[in-house]
Amino acid sequence: MGQRNHSNLILSFHLPFQSLFLAIPILSIFPSHPPSNFSINRMEGSTGMSEAWPMVERNGTQLMTKDEPFVIHGFNTYWLMVFAVDPETRHKITDVFSEAKEAGLNTCRTWAFNDGGWRALQVSPFNYDEEVLQALDFVLSEARKHRIRLILSLCNNWSDYGGRSQYVKWGQESGLDLTSDDDFFSDTTLKSYYKGFVEAVLTRTNTITNIEYKNDATILAWEIINEPRCPSDPSGDTLQAWIEEMSAFVKSIDPVHLVQVGLEGFYGPSTPELMKLNPDDYSGVVGTDFIRNHQAPSIDLASVHIYPDVWLSHSDQDDHIKFVQNWMDQHMSDSKDRLNMPIVFAEFGISIRDERFGSGFRELFMDTVYGTFLRSLETGGPGGGCILWQLFPEGAEHMDDGYAVVLAKYPSTFSLVSLQSKRLSDGAST
Ligand SMILES: *[C@@H]1O[C@H](CO)[C@@H](O)[C@H](O)[C@H]1NC(C)=O
Ligand SMILES: *[C@@H]1O[C@H](CO)[C@@H](O)[C@H](O)[C@H]1NC(C)=O
Predict the structure, then answer these.
(1) Is 151 in contact with 261 (CB distance < 8 Å)?
(2) Which residue among 155, 229, 232 is best mutated to probe the pocket of ligand 2, counting the most ligand atoms within 8 A of its Cβ?
(3) In the chain, what are the domains?
(4) 87-127: per-residue pLDDT in tens?
(5) Could you identify the atom of ligand 1 that is nearest to the CA of residue 60?
(6) Which residue has its alpha carbon closest to ligand 1 atom 5?
(7) What pTM, to 2 d.p., does this model score?
(8) Cα of 236 to ligand 2 centre, how many Å?
């Protein structure tokens, strides 16, 4: 997720009456209040921080902790590190983890980068701010306390929090002749900046828990870049080379943790027959390729996002739901049959500021995502899981892009998330 352009969403939209009927039978199975006494983390109990915590590992298409299956029931909250720098806002990290835990969520995906600018972690190439690194230590330590696993993203395609355009600026400032943000993927100097940063984070020892990041079971996976695209090379070769090099680099420093790319999931030139599944013709030529990118030897998890609200310029609620089901089913079957790896739907969400949708539809959408994943899992599909974009505690609404889910404000959404937790803990351990 980055700055999504919502201007194309201000369409005059007529709510199809039928989708209301579609919503009722599905949503009526949710209890109207949170289930009272289930525990998602049966295994953990009330363990202290010092107690050993098994890593999440991969066995073929499934995730495991020790001998138990692990299924991701996750949420995105990208701003944790930045809020943790400031003593005034630090408590929000604890708030969001507590709230998530209460709903039975077990995994958080968040940014472990902030390049240049305000509260930068990477102030300039090879120069990292210790205060911000300690804020990241705090995020990891709070996650561990709450028994929440983290997927940590190491760079942004978008210019929010710096990202690859900041790397290009640094390169230009040092005298390199760079003309496009896509140079991020091929320029040797920029690649050395990225590698320096990755090495600094992975080899850090947490000042609060005293655990090295690369040995910390709190971390479920490293994500090498959020939502990469390299439209200047639609063949996909440039991005493919970058993914292969950087995922291998991460593994060379940290062979323990799982690695994912951070892709949106568009099919590309390696599978022309699947490109009709893409939301439009353009998404097939942005330099990404779901199948080929995930065949990079150091990649463990398939990553996919779900944003038909933005990807389909003209869609109603029924189109939206149909797209979600097809998109998920095809990617799950590919993860199992072609890639032999678990699949993480690492972002799915909807803006309730979008006139076409409200919180009722958001729940139908969430239920569709959860239901589609579970049905597949129960019939031999790949493991992995789904990560909502995005969970907010109360009092951070000024950061809301319309996609924020404040569970305290939407009891029925809380019930829906809790019910998914219960289904997962009934079907598999967490
Ligand atoms: C890993 O998966 C294989 C094949 O599905 C299975 O036979 C094996 O028992 C699994 N290993 C563990 C530790 O569960
Ligand atoms: C990635 O960044 C480029 C600009 O640098 C932008 O054109 C592209 O849309 C961004 N990615 C996504 C997911 O849209």
Answers:
(1) no
(2) 229
(3) 35-41+56-425 (3.20.20.80)
(4) 999 999 999 999 999 999 999 999 999 999 999 999 999 99
(5) 2
(6) 60
(7) 0.89
(8) 15
